[in-house]
Amino acid sequence: MKLLVLALSLFTVAAFAQTPGNVIPMPDKYVKGEGTFLLNSNSAVSYNNNQLKTIAYYFQNELLSQKGITIQQQAKGASIALVLKSGAKNADSSAYQLSVKPNQVTISASHPNGVFYGVISLLQMALTAKNNQIEAAEITDAAAYGWRGLMLDESRHFFGKQKVKSILNWMAFYKLNTFHWHLTDEPGWRLEIKKYPNLALIGGIGDYLNPGLPAQFYTQADIKEIVAYAAERYIKVIPEVDMPGHATAANKAYPEYSGGGSAGHPEFTFNPGLEKTYSYLTDILKETNVLFPAGMIHLGGDEVSYGNEKWKSNPDILKLREQKNLKNDIEVEQYFMKRMADSLYNLRAKAIFWDEMVDVDVPREKTIIFWWRHDKPGQLRSALNKGYQTVLCPRLPLYFDFVQDSTHQYGRKWNKLYNPVEQVYQFDARSFAKDAKEQPLILGIQADLWTETVDGDARLDYLLFPRIAALAEAAWTKNNRKDFAAFSNSLKPHLTLYGQAGLYYYNPLKPLQNPELPVKRKKPLNYKD
């Protein structure tokens, strides 16, 4: 009954909302024009700068694969013109103008990023238009936030190159621009490191539910291919090499660097008391930094207390504490993380930490804090007070392994709370800054998809769609333009696109259309800190 009431309420408000061309996220300004532009094989695309060549090809390929329409490139006089404006290079790189008239479509921007986002808006209008008739309109648009991210955990379950590319396609479709790739954790190490091949060959064995599975990992050639694929879609890829905790898979491969663990989390930590640990991890970061040109690496730093019991008796760590006057395990961890951050800074890369590391005291201009613990707002306040750039990814409402409806049985809840589409949509990043001066420290928002309960592509799709669309609007659209009723109306044709793409998505308007699939449970999950 709850599902039916929710679906009816969404349908009722959506039925009366006006929606601009079914574009998600909602543009800054949309003025409906007169008439329509007919998109067909007589259409052609041109560009005035070679920097836009790959964008033109992208548009051609998407139209062919999704609509079966072949359009050509023309040097001049094309009905669809991509224009990179000269000057104004200090303008917002996400900003664009899209003009649709019956005989001409023009997308213009001061940066290639902006042209790409204009193409995405046009593509959405084309894919949801009736009879390929795109309604005339004038759109002026730019993103509210520069960080519009999605994290995928592939340590616990591995999905492979083609699925990752599919996710990147959908991220691009919704103007998300940051893919945080969680490649190392307890169940598996998924990144080839040539100096330490056993990280992948041995550390890559098994996953969260099946510890005996053959090794699954990405070769460096795979990584380069995926990073290039993302770059063509204006998405930067940020790897996470989790430390000093969540190191079980790495320690399985190279036990000489282990700092021990606990009964529930064996060999959970790296050993901060051994000098060779820092050299080993720095070597790993060097190779990783070359593979990922984004210029930043996430170093983790979370939940170390789950498995650092043996630090209290480890002679190497006790010696380190004496030498460096470290009072407790927290100070040992902070010492370790500061040294590893310094290794990254020496590689001219930024360090990213989970919010436990807000007291490490590292250079503000080279460090980003991810606030994830919604029940610990003091961690966010401390990060902002100290001047750290911050990305907001709180469990409520931005952990996508949380269920979407009260009737769903598999996945997380927090004191019976969960993350439905509307809660994701209504997330207001601006409300966390105390004043206008502090606003620039909030880089943006990100959803995180942990995969303990994601045992296949269908389950991944079910948790990701349509919440990825709500995430996009929460990250891109200014608050005064957000309208959940209009979003729900725009979402309807997007749900059709999901079905056409073969995705097993959750439909909040018809909750019983695709029932929740059962998931094998390893053990009861408790996520309280």
Write out key terms for the chains shown.
34% helix, TIM Barrel, seven-stranded mixed beta sheet, alpha/beta, 16 helices, disordered N terminus, 529 residues, single chain, Chitobiase, domain 2, eight-stranded parallel barrel
Could you explain how this protein is built, in words?
It catalyses: Hydrolysis of terminal non-reducing N-acetyl-D-hexosamine residues in N-acetyl-beta-D-hexosaminides. This is beta-N-acetylhexosaminidase. It comes from Pedobacter soli. Its EC number is 3.2.1.52. The chain is of the alpha/beta class. Among the domains are: about 110 residues, Chitobiase, domain 2, CATH 3.30.379; about 180 residues, TIM Barrel. It contains 16 helices and 17 strands. An 8-stranded parallel beta barrel has the order 8-9-10-13-14-15-16-17, surrounded by 5 helices. Strand 15, helix 11 and strand 16 form a beta-alpha-beta unit. It is globular and about 75 Å long. The relative contact order is 0.12.
Layout of helices and strands:
Layout: H1 2-16, E1 29-38, E2 44-47, H2 53-67, E3 72-73, E4 80-84, E5 96-101, E6 104-109, H3 112-128, E7 133-141, E8 147-153, H4 161-173, E9 178-182, H5 198-201, H6 220-231, E10 236-243, H7 248-253, E11 258-260, E12 269-270, H8 275-291, E13 296-300, H9 315-324, H10 329-346, E14 350-354, E15 367-371, H11 377-385, E16 389-392, H12 395-398, H13 421-425, E17 442-449, H14 457-464, H15 467-476, H16 484-500
Parallel strand pairs: 2-3, 2-4, 4-6, 8-9, 8-17, 9-10, 10-13, 13-14, 14-15, 15-16, 16-17
Antiparallel strand pairs: 1-7, 5-6, 5-7, 11-12
Helix pairs in contact: 1-16, 2-3, 4-6, 8-10
